[in-house]
């Protein structure tokens, strides 16, 4: 028995063909020098604001999104480079959120996927595990819109004297970009006060510096560690006929094979697209074991996925069948879904998290002991975190 799964999405790949023109005698035409105009330096206030953004502890965002026509509270903490962790909440229904490598992932129960993920078939394939966030949720690119380094780059294009408005009684520069409107304090050091992301219903966030970067990374790292095998609802596959191999009278293992073809998106194979097989074997309702496997989708969009069940239950069941002749039917169910993160790539993602943590946070000094005389110590009191002044950079 074969259960096929997947989800529709749209990915458009654009390409270009370069052409070289030659003269009749086979020589390239003479190139004429083009006048160049030196780019004007960015305004001084944007340089100071960018430095403040990228050398800090990161930013905390709190606001309300509208997803599927319903309000969702967003609470996110974003590192200087754009790594993010937080939650989306609608009453008692919640989802964990992380962003890394330019993508956003969520982990939520069936209720959240049903109410807020849009029209996705087979929600059970994604609920309860890390999955790439659908385009409608949260409705914008978290690293690009909310990442301090990304904002600093955009500010370089801001005017020297932007229009101003009041944000909670504070005069703020209003910097409009295609991705969002950024409200920066007009007074130095020009702290980011608020963000209004572009798109449907223009979600607005209040902004404050991250007060506890150690806590941020303690939450972020284990979440990133669990990304291996994260599903991608934007890929849809058409599975073929499931077959068994090396299963009959084999007390060690049983291999399940399923051919599959990428059907959506239709225009080419997205960069890094992977297919994942999830299969399970049963006998008269008794679970005998499960297995998973994944592979990159080739250019011709067709592949065969194989995984092998080696569970103790399979071994025990098969040995019993061999020792006691009779009828022992078994069957398998399987589905093929898109995979967003290969398990082998998790180590590289964790290394990126660790590099930034090292750049942002130093070990806290030990608490000084009181002097024998009972006088207060003249040494500096313990601080939970000490922040560097350097930008963490990217690998």
A few lines on this structure:
The protein is α+β, with helices and mostly antiparallel strands. It has helices spanning 44-54, 110-116, 142-146, 148-155, 213-225, 312-323, 346-360, and strands at residues 59-67, 70-78, 84-90, 93-100, 103-108, 131-132, 164-167, 170-176, 180-185, 192-197, 204-209, 231-232, 236-239, 243-245, 254-264, 274-283, 286-296, 302-309, 331-339, 361-362, 386-387.
If you had to describe this structure to a student in words, what would you say it looks like?
The protein has 395 residues and is α+β, with helices and mostly antiparallel strands. Helix content is 18%, strand content 33%. The protein contains seven helices and 21 strands. It has helices spanning 44-54, 110-116, 142-146, 148-155, 213-225, 312-323, 346-360; strands at 59-67, 70-78, 84-90, 93-100, 103-108, 131-132, 164-167, 170-176, 180-185, 192-197, 204-209, 231-232, 236-239, 243-245, 254-264, 274-283, 286-296, 302-309, 331-339, 361-362, 386-387. The strands form four sheets. It has an eleven-stranded antiparallel sheet. Strands 12-19-16-17 form a four-stranded antiparallel sheet. Helix 1 (44-54) runs antiparallel to helix 4 (148-155) and helix 5 runs antiparallel to helix 7. The longest helix has 15 residues, at 346-360. It starts with 43 loop residues before the first helix and ends in an 8-residue tail after the last strand. The model is unreliable at 1-28 and 363-395 (pLDDT under 50).
């Amino acid at each position: 028995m074969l259960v096929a799964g997947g989800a529709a999405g749209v990915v458009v790949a654009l390409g270009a063909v370069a052409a070289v023109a030659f003269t009749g005698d086979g020589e390239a035409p003479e190139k004429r020098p083009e006048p160049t105009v030196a780019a004007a330096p960015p305004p001084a206030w944007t340089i100071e604001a960018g430095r403040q953004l990228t050398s800090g502890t990161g930013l905390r965002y709190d606001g309300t999104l509208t997803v599927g026509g319903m309000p969702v509270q967003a609470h996110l903490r974003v590192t200087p480079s754009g790594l993010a962790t937080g939650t989306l909440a609608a009453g008692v229904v919640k989802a964990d959120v992380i962003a890394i490598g330019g993508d956003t992932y969520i982990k939520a129960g069936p209720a959240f996927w049903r109410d807020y993920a849009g029209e996705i078939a087979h929600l059970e394939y994604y609920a309860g595990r890390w999955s790439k966030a659908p385009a409608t949720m949260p409705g914008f690119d978290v690293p690009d819109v909310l990442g301090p380094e990304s904002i600093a780059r955009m500010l370089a294009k801001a005017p020297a004297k932007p229009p101003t408005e009041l944000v909670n009684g504070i005069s703020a520069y209003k910097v409009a970009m295609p991705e969002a409107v950024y409200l920066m304090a007009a007074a130095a050091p020009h702290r980011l006060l608020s963000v209004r992301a572009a798109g449907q219903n223009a979600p607005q966030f209040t902004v404050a510096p991250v007060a506890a970067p150690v806590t941020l990374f303690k939450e972020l790292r284990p979440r990133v560690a669990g990304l291996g095998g994260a599903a991608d609802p934007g890929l849809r596959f058409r599975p073929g006929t499931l077959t068994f191999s090396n299963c009959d009278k084999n007390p060690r293992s049983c291999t399940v094979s399923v051919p599959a073809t990428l059907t959506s998106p239709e225009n080419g194979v997205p960069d890094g697209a992977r297919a994942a097989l999830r299969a399970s074997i049963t006998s008269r309702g008794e679970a005998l074991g499960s297995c998973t496997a994944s592979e990159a989708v080739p250019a011709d969009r067709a592949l065969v996925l194989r995984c092998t069940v080696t569970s103790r239950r399979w071994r025990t069941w098969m040995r019993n069948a061999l020792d006691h002749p009779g009828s022992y039917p078994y069957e398998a169910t399987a589905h093929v879904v898109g995979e967003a993160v290969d398990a082998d790539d998790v180590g590289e993602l964790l290394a990126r998290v660790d590099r930034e943590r090292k750049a942002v946070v130093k070990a806290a000094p030990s608490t000084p002991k009181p002097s024998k005389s009972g006088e207060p110590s003249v040494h500096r009191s313990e601080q939970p975190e000490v922040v560097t002044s350097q930008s963490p950079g990217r690998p």
